[in-house]
Write a structure and sequence with these properties.
90 residues; mainly alpha; single chain
């Protein structure tokens, strides 16, 4: 098993890597989710698996003191992908 992530910088980088992978491997679901206003339904399993992986590796103290995973979702999916996909919700 990999060693626990103990610094904020590492935790933030790890969260962004997980969400980047979600974006990369689920492009069609994300586009469809924005277009049909069903984004969370489309990628809920991927988000849950990513969050579980993040929580397994990051120390409890860091989990309690930050929202890196949620921020990565906002930054990488909503801001980057959301601006690229025509949608009625924006």
């Amino acid at each position: 098993m990999a060693s626990p992530i103990t610094t904020a910088e590492q935790a933030n980088r790890f969260a962004r890597a997980i969400v980047s992978d979600i974006c990369l491997y689920n492009e069609e679901k994300i586009v469809r989710g924005f277009q049909q206003d069903t984004l969370f339904e489309e990628i809920q399993d991927e988000i849950q698996k990513g969050l579980e992986l993040y929580q397994e590796r990051v120390t409890k103290e860091l989990l309690a003191s930050n929202r890196f995973f949620e921020n990565a979702l906002i930054d990488l999916i909503f801001q980057e992908k959301g601006e690229q996909v025509p949608s009625q919700i924006w």
